[in-house]
Request: fold
Amino acid sequence: MTQFVQRVFSGVQPTGNLHLGNYLGAIAKFVELQKTHECVYCIVDLHAITVPQKPETLRASIREVTAAYIAVGIDPKKHIIFNQSQVAEHAELAWVLNCVARVGWLNRMTQFKEKAGKDRENVSIGLYVYPILMAADILLYKATQVPVGEDQKQHLELARDIAQKFNLDYGESIAATGHGEAFFPLPEPLIQGPATRVMSLRDGTKKMSKSDPSDYSRINFTDDADTIAQKIRKAKTDPEPLPSEIEGLGNRPEADNLIGIYAALENRSKADVLQTFGGGQFSTFKNALVDLAVAKLEPIASEMKRLCADSAYIDDVLADGAARAREIAAANMIAVKNIVGFVG
Ligand code: AQP
Reply:
């Protein structure tokens, strides 16, 4: 068995309105993992342009996600923070992987079906091949672990299938070029905890999402304390008191969601949170959730604001991160070209 360096990779799209779902499902985990792993955290701007973006807004969003990474506590000196477009090998490897992946695999991707909706013939080809680029992002760094929200599970499975097919298709060449039995590790999705799929505050059956037209559906990274309080107090609930046992959350999507958010913010299990609030009214629980959410999110918002005012610093972080990312990416891409049989 080929042994791989343990490396974490993940990314966030610079498409505006970073929200609590992005935080609890992914970014908060990035912070934890940097204590134990070598981490590469990307602002995936190539993914962002799969749907139309205004150049000025995109530029601002790239800096804002960078600021968010630093504000939550990712150390850009110890780990790598960079934007995808600055490392050309992402697009280069994606092409090779386009030729490994099968059309049938892509046709099964549910996120494409949801995002394309009825307008399937008119969306960009980029949106269709998005999961291949995502596989390239991960495999370019031979990442072994990928912290993501539940919605990315299928894309991660595809990345594993692509890695496996590349390893099989090119097995002889991989061995002949001195890379052992397998060139790419099969990346492991890290989808754990009580808030892997944070739901809309307006509808507990819909994912909290950047593109939801209602701002009341989500808590944004940039919301101030009053706005957070208002959104939580207005969050949809049901008329029953909170249950004392976890089984009581079944068929109560809004209650389940709010308890999950509380649990994730305080690093507790849902069962444990229900021990505290079970049997009580939503109003009491919501007050506690407001205090907790404000205490966790307000310092991040104010640090982001401070960092965003210093775009020269942000740009330096990105340039330094891109240079370090490129070193890993270039070496792996040279190996891929060699394995595939390109001359150069
Ligand atoms: N609601 C969520 N709950 C848990 N995790 C979530 N993530 C997103 N929404 C939730 C995770 O956040 C990371 C970055 O997501 P992204 O920026 O790549 O974009 P996305 O998944 O497309 O985010 P949205 O809000 O869902 O955008 P739209 O509205 O455009 O569809 C990922 O790890 C993701 O799983």
Observations:
- Residues 12-13, 15, 21-22, 25-26, 148-149, 151-152, 196-198, 207-211 surround adenosine-5'-tetraphosphate (CB under 6 Å).
